[in-house]
Amino acid sequence: MYEIIFQFAANQFPNDNIIQELIAIDYYLQHKIKPQQLFIQEIELTEKQQIIQQLSLNHQKNRYIILPVSFDFSFYLKEQRIERTTSNIIIQYNGTTAPEIINTFC
Amino acid sequence: MSLFWNIINQKNVFQFEITADIIHPDIIAFIQEKVPVGLFRFEIGIQTVNQKANLAVSRKQNFDKTKAIIKALDNKIEMHLDLIVGLALDEFEDIKYSIEEVFKLFAPELQLGFLKFLKGTPVRDKYEQHGFIFDKNPPYQIIQSNYLSAAQLHQITLAEHALEIYWNKKRTIHTLKYITNNYSIFDFLLGLGTYFSSVKFTSIHLKRCV
Predict the structure, then answer these.
(1) Measured in Å, how far apart are chain B's first and last C-alpha atoms?
(2) Interstrand relation of B78-85 and B109-114 (parallel, antiparallel or unpaired)
């Protein structure tokens, strides 16, 4: 399903990368367990591990994906406007309930 | 009274089919003050925002008021909104406008129903007046009219399919909200539905979609 909408959006809106990033975010938020990587690749493993440590995230109980995006997603959720900036979104998967975005940082 | 609170506390959801624009302000205040989030679900039949089409079926609706009430309550009440495709005097651009205006309310569920000519109903009795052609078999769904060609109806079906898969099934909420605020959501859904239908799927895949 996501590959179809992603291909469609890439063809119809080739200059709007925000749509593609939002499709990726929607995809990653759809699964209770950490899904295979599609559309946006996670940040490098060493950087990811540093962030998990810095934020004292429980990586034994949960799984995390850290996605680089080109806008402030928290700002977008509140204001429904795009503020362009390089930022990362941390999504937490516990395997039983819907995933949550636990942090976004620039 | 304890039975009433017992029922409420068992996490039941109560669904009401309502006419939103006649909800009294006291009811809105009561809901905001007393009703827990998620206890009620409102199904609101908007049908069309085209006043001429509403009046043709003897229906009065104040859409601005309906919108205001939906926005006043959607933090507490889950909204399910209905539109009907194929009403007399509703042309393709009118239907597109209705879909776009209602979608902007971002209700968790927006259903596009296609007009049906059930036996004994006024719409069936007067079908010739508007050039309606409908399926002779149940559910007697519209095929075309003086206002919508069969091809246009097919296009709306494709948009409806995309709406169901990507919005009502909550697969791409953030994406479609962004599209609504920056482009035409109807055009996007139509394009996506057309693209979707052109991709070859087995029937197993199609069943999984919906």
Answers:
(1) 41
(2) parallel
A5 → closest Cβ in B174, B181, B192: B192
- Rounded to 5°, the CA angle A9-A15-A20 comes to 40
Does ipTM surpass 0.90 in this model? yes
The pTM (predicted TM-score) of the whole model is 0.90
For residues A99 and A31, the answer to whether their CB atoms sit within 8 Å is yes
pLDDT tens over chain A, length 106 residues: 999 999 999 999 999 999 999 999 999 999 999 999 999 899 999 999 999 999 999 989 999 999 999 999 999 998 989 999 999 999 999 999 999 998 777 6
Distance CA B187, CA B159 (A): 8
Q: Between B181, B188, B209, which is nearest A80 by CB?
A: B181
Q: What is the DSSP secondary structure assignment for residue B116, as one 8-state letter?
A: B
How far apart, in whole angstroms, are the C-alpha atoms of residue A8 and residue B175?
13
